[in-house]
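User: Sequence for FAD dependent oxidoreductase below. Tokens please.
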Amino acid sequence: MRPIIFVFLYLCYSAVAFGQKKLKPQVLVYGDDITAYAAALQSSLSNVPTLWILPGSKMVPELTTKPLSFDNLANLDGGIWMSLLMEMAISQTKSDSIAALVKKDINPQLAANALEKLLLKQTNLLVVKEQKIESMKRNKNTWTITCSNKQKYDVRGVVDATSDQLLHSFTGSAIMHAKPGRLLPVERLNAEQVRTLIASGQSGDQIYGLTFSNMIFLEKDNVLNLFAVQQLLDQEQATIPLKANIGQALGAIVAYTAFFKTAVSKVDVRKLQTELLTYGARIVPFQDIATDDPNFMSIQKIGLSNLFKGMKVDPGYYFVKEAPVRYEEVEPVFNKLFTRSQLWFLDNKGSEFYWKDYLSLLKFVGLRGDEIEKQIAKDWNSKLKFEGNFDVDKLVTRYQFATLLDRYASPYVQRVTQEGQPIH
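Assistant: Structure tokens for FAD dependent oxidoreductase:
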């Protein structure tokens, strides 16, 4: 009986998801794997009419062909990939522990059903199967795409998510002599690179961080590709989560250009990161900050501000949330982010931050009064979800420091260039 139910559900979902919708797409995604799926879904989530064209007949075959079991590092799942895992588990809340259980045994039919269910929720996504793109013509602000069935579409942006990068011949991109920058494990990124992170994930035994510059390599007229990241994307199933994260980032970029009617060169990195975080992306791969942590978003924003560097603890990457905060660690970063902080550090010296010191700093850079202390004490267990009791004579942990800084004087609101330089 169970197989019959699966077949019935599959047919129902297919009929709805792939029915011809009256849609004027602004973004086109080409490809059939998890990268294309995530790009198309994110573009649609970003409220941009999106067309997903599959060259073949099967959607995300790497997940829907045979049973899979993942042995990746724990607590790295996020974004659309996490949503997909939760859909397989029929879970209403996101959880790293549930994700780990699902990844131990992924049934291809359950995966297919989950993929379809997420698509069903989108009202501005059109999926077309078994079509090749025969030509692309550049207009003033759009591309005219002609498919093998002679159907034409005018779109503002394109993601080529095919493994062979089939569209590059239409754009005139010179790839023969272009060399992408070396992709680095996240712990080796410099401050500017950390500020422009938009995706991360595991490939081999390393956790890589991918910057905005990585993702727009050889971009031309809002046509995005995978040239810079292909070195990480082998055919092993272990890279499927990373591919999903890359696809989601590409989908967010191309949706931004279509929504704001602008070029990739004009994308505001902070707005882009915020859009990805809104849909659950785990941009900074801190493995000790659970996806359902009430302060997950705050820690992500502080991580992207490069106030605290993560720590490489083989084989993973950690925020080290319970570690104390040292003056020498944050003073140089604070002085770049908050001009006023230089005056505070001239008058206040120490080794590690106690609460009385940190409250003084927060009030100074955040232009706050004594009410901040009362509010923290009131919210300590209820809203902040901090453990223990508030005591001004105790040391401040990195987790507490980051959570409250984002709340009262967030450095994340400071815009940065696409190269990661602060914009004052």
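Residues 85 and 163 are 24 Å apart (CA to CA).
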